[in-house]
């Protein structure tokens, strides 16, 4: 493995980017294509195919079908470090309401066989377009003369379920490509377009999701005395779970416990046999995470008052827990972040934020790095139209007027989001890829 070499100075990197502009028209069209043709997690076949055959990767050794529909391209350009740039590419089961002329009208069958709408409501289409643009720019003849090393571009499936990065690793990713010295990635967020933000330490939260089933004894709604009503048990669980953050988590720490779904029965006059709760947990420290998860299990298993109520109701079957998703904490390496931040500050100036708050969103990109004990850095870019953002900020209506990720109204403004996203990837990569230092 090649040692990390001295990278060009921040001003040299910025000059290189400014003096060799990329024609963005093609990537704007490509973004619209991906936005109009989203695919759910584990179904990214056409997205993967489009990426793998795109001319932006013509200089790369491309491999497909890694961990599902994962795609990687490797470009070796002399002796130097190996840098991995990653983008995710799956969409969500959301009905788009943006009104854009390239809005998604796609519907597909989900894993349960139901028909669901599909939308790129989290910006992964923008991530793919940005990485294709960055791959093309870094591989261009004039730019390749200015750096040396190995560049890996990785397009990851199944991020929304928190399993895609791990699946690629477990499918032998690092037997197929050189191990990177550094892993880099980004995400478009509800911030002013053109803004870039990163900090060392915890950048975004961990997430743990569960399907919890509590059991009762069904029967006629007119005869509750002969039944065990799981809706009552589930309702008590929901109320008790809300006390975890309020009474068991240090007020200086951050945690969120959400019951996103509670389902039982199909009729108003039938008491169901069971109730199913879908629970999501977000935390920003591992200690807090463990405390919250233990508290949920304790409450649901009736170690608290719910235990007594359930026993009093003669429950005959214990609750079951099924983990549905798990995202690790994303903790940026301090040395990598310092290097990337210096390059961003030099290139982006006042639009660079070196101290953003930790986000409660979650990611699995760190699995690409921690699986091989390598450092990583993950940053955020803004995607909200500047005039819209400024108006909402002035009127104190950001929460009301600015759509967030996973909203049916979320769609990054194409420019300057695309240009910013391409430049962040290029600037960050060049902060490590040693080469000639003249621009």
From TrEMBL:
It comes from the Eukaryota. InterPro entries: Amidohydrolase, Bact_exopeptidase_dim_dom, Peptidase_M20, Peptidase_M20_dimer. SUPFAM superfamilies: Bacterial exopeptidase dimerisation domain, Zn-dependent exopeptidases. Residues 208-303 form the Peptidase M20 dimerisation domain. Belongs to the peptidase M20A family. This is Peptidase M20 dimerisation domain-containing protein.
């Amino acid at each position: 493995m090649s040692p990390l070499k001295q990278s060009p100075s921040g001003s040299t990197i910025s000059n290189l980017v400014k003096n060799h502009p990329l024609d963005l028209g093609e990537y704007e069209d490509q973004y619209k294509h991906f936005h109009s043709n989203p695919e759910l997690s584990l179904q990214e076949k056409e997205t993967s195919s489009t990426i793998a055959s795109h001319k932006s990767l013509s200089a790369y050794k491309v491999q497909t079908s890694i961990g599902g529909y994962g795609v990687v391209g490797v470009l070796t350009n002399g002796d130097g470090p190996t840098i991995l740039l990653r983008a995710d590419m799956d969409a969500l089961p959301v009905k788009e309401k943006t009104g854009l002329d390239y809005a998604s009208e796609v519907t597909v069958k989900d894993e349960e066989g139901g028909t669901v709408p599909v939308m790129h409501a989290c910006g992964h289409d923008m991530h793919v377009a940005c990485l294709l643009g960055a791959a093309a720019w870094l591989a261009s003849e004039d730019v390749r003369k200015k750096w040396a090393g190995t560049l890996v571009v990785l397009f990851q499936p199944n991020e929304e379920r928190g399993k895609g990065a791990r699946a690629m690793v477990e499918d032998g990713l690092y037997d197929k490509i050189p191990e990177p010295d550094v892993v880099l990635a980004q995400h478009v967020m509800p911030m002013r377009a053109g803004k870039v933000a990163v900090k060392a330490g915890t950048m975004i939260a961990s997430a743990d999701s569960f399907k919890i089933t509590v059991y009762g004894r069904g029967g006629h709604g007119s005869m509750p005395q002969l039944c065990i009503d799981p809706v009552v048990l589930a309702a008590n669980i929901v109320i008790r779970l809300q006390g975890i953050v309020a009474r068991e988590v240090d007020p200086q720490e951050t945690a969120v416990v959400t019951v996103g779904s509670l389902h039982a029965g199909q009729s108003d006059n039938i008491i169901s046999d069971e109730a199913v709760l879908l629970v999501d947990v977000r935390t920003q420290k591992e200690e807090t995470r463990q405390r919250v998860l233990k508290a949920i299990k304790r409450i649901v298993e009736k170690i608290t008052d719910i235990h007594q109520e359930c026993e009093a109701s003669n429950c005959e079957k214990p609750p079951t827990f099924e983990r549905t998703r798990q995202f690790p904490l994303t903790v940026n390496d301090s040395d990598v972040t310092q290097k990337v931040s210096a390059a961003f500050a030099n290139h982006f100036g006042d639009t660079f934020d070196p101290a953003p708050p930790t986000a409660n969103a979650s990611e699995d990109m760190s699995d690409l790095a921690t699986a091989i004990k390598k450092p990583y850095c993950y940053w955020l870019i803004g995607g909200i139209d500047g005039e819209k953002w400024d108006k909402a900020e002035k009127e104190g209506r950001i929460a009301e007027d600015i759509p967030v990720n996973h909203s049916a109204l979320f769609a990054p403004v194409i420019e300057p989001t695309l240009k910013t996203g391409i430049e962040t990837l290029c600037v960050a990569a060049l902060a490590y890829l040693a080469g000639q230092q003249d621009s």
